[in-house]
Amino acid sequence: MTPIPLNITNADIHKAVQETELSAIPPRRFYTKYYLVVDGKKYPPKYILSRANQYANGQELGLDAFTTQQAVAYFSKMGFQVEKREEVPSYFDELNRFLEQTKTDDLKYSSYQKSFINLNVSVGFGRANKAKVPRIAFLNEANSVQERIYPAYFFYKDLGLLILAYGEPDTGKPQNNWKLRNPTTITKYFAEHHLGKPTNYGSSYVYKVYNTNNPLNRDEIEEDLLDIIDLYNEMQEDTDMPPTHTTTEQQEFQLSAFLAALNTTGLSFNPALVTRFVGALLAKPFVILTGLSGSGKTRLAQAFVQWICERAQQYCIVPVGADWTNREPLLGYPNALDQQEYIKPDNGALELLLYANEHANKPCFLILDEMNLSHVERYFADFLSIMESQEAISLHAGGAQKKSGVPAAIKWPANLFIIGTVNIDETTNMFSPKVLDRANTIEFRVTAPEMMAFLNTAHPLNKQALNAAGASGAESFLALAGAKEGQAQGADRAYINQTLIRFFKALKKTGAEFGYRTATEILQLLHQLGVIDHNLSLNQKLDMAIMQKLLPKLHGSRRKLIPVLSTLGALCFKGSNVEKEVFETDDFDYETDQVLFPLSLEKITRMYKGAIDNGFASFAEA
After folding, report:
1. How far separated are the first and last CA of the chain, in Å rounded?
2. Which residues contact 65 (CB under 8 A, 6 or more apart)?
3. What is the arrangement of strands in the sheet containing 440-444, beginning at the earlier edge strand?
4. Residue 379, Cβ neighbours under 10 Å: how many?
5. Is the pTM of this model over 0.70?
6. What is the DSSP letter of 552?
7. Residue 264 neighbours by CB under 8 Å, 6+ apart
């Protein structure tokens, strides 16, 4: 490190600020413990000081030339306001746990957090045998410790030395290089301090050395790691090194683009079904997909998240087990035998929640496959409650201290969407009204024309073509999901209200009436459907809302349901006798002008016939 040039003036700093557009600063440069605050706006201190030197001395300062702490001290001395972040990204607790584990024969690493800020984390204690130098590497997606440079902790445990290093591969020349001024390799450091020859990683460069025989200082550890990651991230912007992730130019979300992408991959879905699915996600971030086994429920969910997500860390597919009785399979639990350890689930669900909280501008998706193999109300209760209250989920009693990188509580991420797939048979469980009331439920069926079209055009799928193809619309998608205005007015609103009241009165006869939450979510769904597809008529949107929000709670005996189904059917049909003209007609055409709500009427008809034939009917069918 070199001293910051003392000839950088207030005018140079103000000019650097004035010439800097906040939106032009790469987001990863904001991963810093302190902000420079000018006119209420927050800037990364090293970024601004480096640019200020351009005006004072004709060139930007290299980020390896000074630390954030030096920049903060310089700004404070010059009279500028510097503000410490409320929540500082910290790897301190994980690092201490790592050091403690090196004292044992335990080589397991799966419980360590898989990412830190914008980087993947690779922890290594050795494979079959203990490593002579355990390490923690911080890597972007394109990098590996065998091929490219990376920030890392190397622990020379026999000497009690922990080295924060500019990591270099020991296997040969890296595909890219650190751009450092007068760096010192670990081999040279050992020689200068008469420590012999390092066992491994000698070609890597020293950033900072810590004596672990003394307690580590949290502030020092946090600042140093953020500094080296700041330098690493700056280098991602250079052309000789692939970026941590491709920065996708954001555009307006277009449903038509997703439909077109599906066609190119060979996936076959009814466009109306896709519209309902996307509209439901935008209206409420909890969607249940039910219906015929093998009809594409999981495939559609997976296709959409692959298409809109920029990185694999943004989604997680979790097969639900038949033995889930509490939240532990999704959220993990504190180790009762080790107060410092938190056991994370191997399925990645908790990691996804942590990632979603750290990346609020990216949509994240949790797909629960076969969601009803266990009682949803048991393992999903925390999610159902927090989804509404938007409060924090309590994970352990550690206060401000993290355990295994897991905070004591985690806020519900507004950018998290949950998709559950459901099959109905003798091995599964039915949903309670509490669950159905909080979700949009979409039924998947396959018609004879759809099956014929599939058979005539079936060919190998090209799912890879979907990867990140719609990432340019991700921020727009999030903005749409967060918009709660734009409900219909005037004659349309009066017609909507009149229709919903009629259905409310009919459903009340079976105890399946809806409350304020459902009414609000129906209005929101109507709005979102209109936003993503301007060609939908008001009746088409109402039909989708009735099918997804009102009918799913219907179930009961023939005696209980038949009168109600007849009333509901009459609300969907302009004819004089829905039972004779529709229910008792095998080849009724639901697309005639006589039908107001074809999706809903067709479902009501199937339930009516099921109740007659079996003495019982439910929205969910095998």
Report:
1. 68
2. 1, 2, 181
3. 315-319, 364-369, 416-421, 286-291, 440-444
4. 22
5. no
6. G
7. 462, 465
pLDDT at 240: 34
Task: Kindly state the helix (H) or strand (E) to which residue 38 belongs, with its residue range.
Answer: strand 34-38
Q: Tell me the C-alpha to C-alpha distance, in Å, between residue 182 and each of 197, 206, 271, 391, 578.
A: 21, 11, 61, 50, 86
Q: What is the pLDDT of residues 407-465, one digit of tens each?
A: 889 888 999 999 999 988 777 788 888 899 899 999 998 888 888 887 887 666 777 77
Q: Do the Cβ atoms of 88 and 60 come closer than 8 Å?
A: no
pLDDT, residue 19, reads 85
DSSP string, 371-411: GGGS-HHHHSHHHHHHHHH--EEE--S-TT--BTTB-SEEE
Average of per-residue pLDDT values in the chain: 87
- Cα 541 to Cα 112, 280, 501, distances in angstroms: 46, 11, 16
The two tokens of residue 145 are 């410790």
* Length in residues, the chain: 622
Q: How far is CA 425 from CA 373, 388, 429, 558, in A?
A: 10, 30, 8, 20
CA angle 229, 233, 236 (to 5 degrees): 145
The tens digit of pLDDT for each residue in 259-293 reads: 999 988 878 889 999 999 999 999 999 999 998 88
Contacts of 594 (CB under 8 A, 6+ apart): 573, 574, 575
Q: With 90 as the cut, is the pLDDT of residue 88 above it?
A: no
Residue 242 pLDDT > 50: no
Those residues whose C-beta lies under 8 Å from the C-beta of residue 154, and which sit 6 or more positions away, are 133, 134, 135, 162, 163, 165, 167, 186, 200, 201, 204
What tokens does 30 get? 């904001």
Tell whether the model's pLDDT for residue 244 goes beyond 60. Answer: no
